[in-house]
Amino acid sequence: MPPKEDNEELLEGHDLADCPCPEVDIESSWRDDIEEFERGMQTDPVGTGVASTQSLTVGEIETQTDDHMMTQVASGVSSEMILPFLNRVMPMMEACLSEMDASDAFVEPEMNDDHMATVDVVHNLSMFNKAMDDQNPEDLKTTGVSWNSTGYVLAVSYGRFDVSGWCNSPGALCSWNLGRKEIKPYQPDITIEVDNPLQCCAFHPAHPAVVAGGTLNGELYVWDLSRDDLQRGKSRITDYSHREPITQIVWQFNAAEASKHSMKENAYQIVTCSTDGRILVWNWNKLDNPVYGYEMQRAHPETSKMVLWGCTSMSFTPYSAVAQDQAASLLSSNQGAFVVGTDGGTLYRCFMHHNSQMETEFTKSVAANGKVKFRSPVKAEYEIHAGPVHAVDCSPFQRNLFVSCGIDGQMRLYNMLQQRSILMLEPTGVYTYSAQARPAPLASPLSIPAPAVGAGQAVWSPFRPLVLCASTGDGRVILYDLLQSALHPAK
């Protein structure tokens, strides 16, 4: 063993060595040298520049006035001279001030308070004069009213609601022109008698003399009150038409028909609904057969079986300006959204999705007495009424709002995008009946005998977006102004 001193010399400079040995290099047996390479790349020179901006030069401008001395000029007026002047002009000034105080030239006019206004019945129109003991052997009732496009002629349909089957009782359509100086309340200007009770009527939106009516047996009439031969057309009772009472008539604008005719009045089609569950589209210039049809088929919510629901009322959503432009660009389409109320209390959102080609195929099948399959227009369902729905009406200002009333005495406000009603009104404990808004020029209030049973409607005001109207079974007409109160009728 080497001495301690020798070990210290060997470990000098190798403090971390495991053994007192010098360094040992072991050369690789398979690699001679490490190859090294140099590579380079060049990019385009980066352009640099110096830009400068210059602001506007700010200048100072001074103005100088003439330096003058304020001098006081003696007026030479004394109190003895002022008093006679004031005594002379004061009466004239006081008179002018009094005249201005009494004048209303600069006073803003006060708006009339609708709540303080009263309604007076000016005309009581009826087909029968009770004072003259006019007989009404068929017990006809007022079943519908309609104003023409000018707002001066009123058409009233007379029929019956107490018949559940086939009926041979007559009906009538009467019209009064309230723009005349002399009005005979119990003598209509025009009286048209039909073979069956007339259940509804509707004037043409553009032609002031054309009016349509639907009967209890499912027949559709069109009259022109400006002609000697009043009847323009009448539908036939076939397997493709209505077989039960027509409950409502709607004149619907058709962009495809507008492209075929130069007159605007020919661009409208008639859409009818009936308690047989059919919704039919008619060409009012030719009423032999409908041009297309739908059936209100929908699965029952409890049994899930397909049920054909009877239609009691319907209302189409109004076209906006944008929608009219879009409809004009799609002339071959007859798309239209509408709401239907049924005799079971259900409310449905529906679409008319037929075109000209489908109308042609439907017409050919009907002409050949072929088998026709009626499509269902139902797309959505809403919260139901506790009984038949008397009427539905879409808002003319908001396309997603509609109101309904039924035999349960309730008025319900719906949003088409929600299943449940957003507002429920109960104006009375009895049924809600008919009320009709008048377009165009307003005239004097009038009174028309109300129907004995429910076939009514609740309507929106055509001028105020939040005003609703309905009539009740006890003879009252109720107005709601939702801007003032959402619970109580307007007084």
In percent terms, what proportion of residues is strand?
Answer: 25-35%
What can be said about the biggest beta sheet? 4 strands, antiparallel
Return the structural class. Answer: alpha+beta
What's the oligomerization state?
single chain
Radius of gyration: 44 Å
Mean pLDDT score: 78
Low-confidence stretches: 320-334, 434-456
Instruction: State the helicity in percent bands.
Output: 10-25%
Number of strands: 28
Q: Which sequence of strands runs across the widest sheet? A: 2-3-4-5
Give the CA-based shape: flat
Please report the distance between the alpha carbons of the first and last residues: 128 Å
Task: Compute the number of helices.
Answer: 5
Task: Write a concise keyword list for the protein shown above.
alpha+beta, single chain, four-stranded antiparallel sheet, 491 residues, 5 helices
Description:
With 491 residues, the protein is an alpha+beta fold. It is 12% helix and 29% strand. It is built from five helices and 28 strands. The strands form eight sheets. The protein has a four-stranded antiparallel β-sheet with strand order 2-3-4-5, with no helix packed on it. Strands 6-7-8-9 form a four-stranded antiparallel β-sheet, with no helix packed on it. The termini are far apart.
Quick overview:
The protein has 491 residues and is an alpha+beta fold. The protein has helices spanning 4-10, 79-102, 255-260, 321-329, 356-367, and strands spanning 123-124, 141-147, 153-159, 171-177, 190-194, 198-203, 210-215, 220-224, 231-234, 246-253, 268-274, 278-282, 292-295, 297-299, 306-308, 311-316, 336-342, 347-352, 378-382, 389-394, 401-406, 411-415, 423-425, 432-433, 446-447, 459-460, 467-472, 477-481. It has five helices and 28 strands.
